[in-house]
TrEMBL record, chain B:
Its EC number is 1.3.5.1. It comes from Arthrobacter echini. The keyword Iron-sulfur does not apply. Its main location: membrane. This is Succinate dehydrogenase flavoprotein subunit. It is an enzyme of class 1 (oxidoreductase). The modification Tele-8alpha-FAD histidine is found at H42. Substrate binds at H250, S262, H361, R402. It is found in: Membrane. The lineage of its organism: Bacteria, Bacillati, Actinomycetota, Actinomycetes, Micrococcales. The keyword Membrane applies.
Amino acid sequence: MEKEPASKVELAPGVGGGGEIPTFDVTLKVRRYNPEISDEAHWDEWKLTMYGTDRVLDALHKVKWEHDGSVSFRRSCAHGVCGSDAMRINGRNRLACKTLLKDLDTSKPILVEPIKGLPVEKDLIVDMEPFFQSYREIMPFLISKGHSPTKERLQSAEERERYDDTTKCILCAACTSSCPVFWTDGQYFGPAAIVNAHRFIFDSRDDAGDMRLEILNDKEGVWRCRTTFNCTEACPRGIQVTKAISEVKQAILTRKI
Amino acid sequence: MQVHKYDVVIVGAGGAGMRAAIEAGQRAHTAVLTKLYPTRSHTGAAQGGMCAALANVEEDNWEWHTFDTVKGGDYLVDQDAAEVMAKEAIDAVLDLEKMGLPFNRTPEGRIDQRRFGGHTRDHGKAPVRRSCYAADRTGHMILQTLYQNCVKHNVEFYNEYYVLDLLMVDQEVTVDGETRLEKRVAGVVSYDLASGELHVFQAKSVVIASGGVGKVYKTTSNAHTLTGDGMGIAFRRGIPLEDMEFFQFHPTGLAGLGILLSEAARGEGAILRNSDGERFMERYAPTIKDLAPRDIVARSMANEVREGRGAGPNKDYVLLDLTHLEPAHIDAKLPDITEFARTYLGVEPYTEPVPVFPTAHYAMGGIPTNISAEVLSDNETVVPGLYAAGEVACVSVHGSNRLGTNSLLDINVFGKRAGLAAAEYALTADFVEIPENPTAETEALLDRARSSEGGERVAAIRKELQDIMDANVQVFRTEQTLLEALSVIDGLEERYTRITVQDKGKRFNLDLLEAVELGFLLDMAKVMTAAALHRQESRGGHFREDFPERDDENFMTHSMAYKDPSATRTSGVRLETKPVIFTRYEPMERKY
């Protein structure tokens, strides 16, 4: 236990920062598609004045709220935990609410497109059903044989740590839709489903690891992974996705969890 | 128009909705309707933990938890409900563990527990370790675990189905030879976002679990989608809303942004300082200091800023200091929130204090229910087949101020109760006949929004609403600020009749969706402000500068707000009262 902190301390001058937030101009280019109007996609662009603390989501909102209400995208929490707003920003999969404009090259237009490999419904909205279908197939829930204890099951801190990284997944699909194998073969489970299988395979309380390994040993399973690391780079939660996939591959080979 | 038939329909797929679905889905034909995808719900943003007196790390019992909850709510808590919650908390945590939730563990392998604001040992003697947690992403783990178990039990979801109306009918019933009209629920009307089509869901039981209304405020920890829809559809159909004047401002939102930094930071030892570097909570709550309940801490912070001791160039925030904590400890226990400080403010919490200010966080009030999660249409009358749970409901376990972690607990305990009760009722009851033209009201609502060409922008009206709520109905309130807010809201409502929705399509028309959501926000802002005006005292999260004391003689009652066009002074909201349920605790002065 830390000792009680001091009742009063000297603060460094300028601590906390703040004050006038700088503004700058950006050009936002959004990939538009609405089959109600046309089968062809096109780009629209807007020049916007934005603040230093603004994110790509703020720019999209500015467009929707002040310029063109028909621009369509999903979003909810706006701080990187709900997974609604994964999109391709300057060619990279990111969450719009976690990408600060000032961290992008604002001297050039910022390109925003829907994530790849899933059918586009309208503008930045894609059909997520194939993604969730793969997720459901790996049986993403704890399967425990034997009697349930009266109180909690015991799990050591080390056992808990073993699968910690893959519990962070928010199912945003940034990883799966960044994977070149998934782009060309929609049947491939994709990184997110494997990450979620990993979360249970390496949970000491789970008894269905073998079943999940068998599912992922399928021809559309882990062996399709070409270790390009796109998924790890795309993950907004910092999950070591490629490492998790390798651990699943290893477990299939050795049948040791 | 398509018609679907289910025994149980659940509106909302956050923690309460999915917890209900796990119970109802195994017993009755159940559908869950959500305007999002289930895993996008805002339960996932909760951070710090879920309290239960497991006593895994130190002595504790559920009676102490009940007392803390009652005192934390400034004695406006219904004590029967608080008892149920604190008692069932233990099984609620164990249920989640058995479903697979990855709690942090003690060295012995048990669920670990930590301190949280207002949770104390032996009736306020000292902070107690009661919060069960998974790092600072407990809500994320709960949401994922519940969704995983819904997948396991094949729960049927209708994703991106936005429920816009509650189908209620008045049915004649004869009790003891006396015939009277009784409200019954027949189902819901929902709008399929993908196609723009309306779907009617006939159901024997309807569970409303659609979450809160934080977007009435500008600075908020709430998601964009939390627009009070569930409260709104009930209110428009004549159901009262209870205790809507009580809205919680979470002390530690990232300054200027409102993004939440969990109270777990203070639970793990972080403290608040003003511009003089002073740990000011020592003055406001000498015993438990920074771990005082949220209403007290938020008000103390606002007071420091008002008296000129705010930090920063504009002196408009205070500082959350974690610099005395070990970086390894921070990484293990608070990884996400320290990442938020780095990402959004560019502040390194290892070495620098983080600018924070209260952020609108949680509605204590909502749709009135009893402890079986049955909705009440007045102080006593149950609406057969209608249930509510979670933030949308008011049972009331939070009274005038919710303790940290008790919301994750509330959704699990009362979500489960709602699911069980809804399934049980559906197994014995008959369907209520759907009224003629069930979609008439909804179609009229959508047509008004789509066809109006007055040129007013939804986003502009919403911004003005949020600005006035932040300025006038925040931590400090007076009759004058509240009357002014009501008159501004009336004006905004008038402009709302002249909006233009630019998107004219049917497919994923989120422009139209935002227009409809604004209608609910305006209704709820009005209810909250009218209820605040009615309560001429200060209690918990509601502080009236013109009535700074708690007044038990006149206001030890819940407020009940009814839609009533004849109540002109309060913009069509009529206020009544409802007695508080006492069991074992007499009101005392609230000191920490």
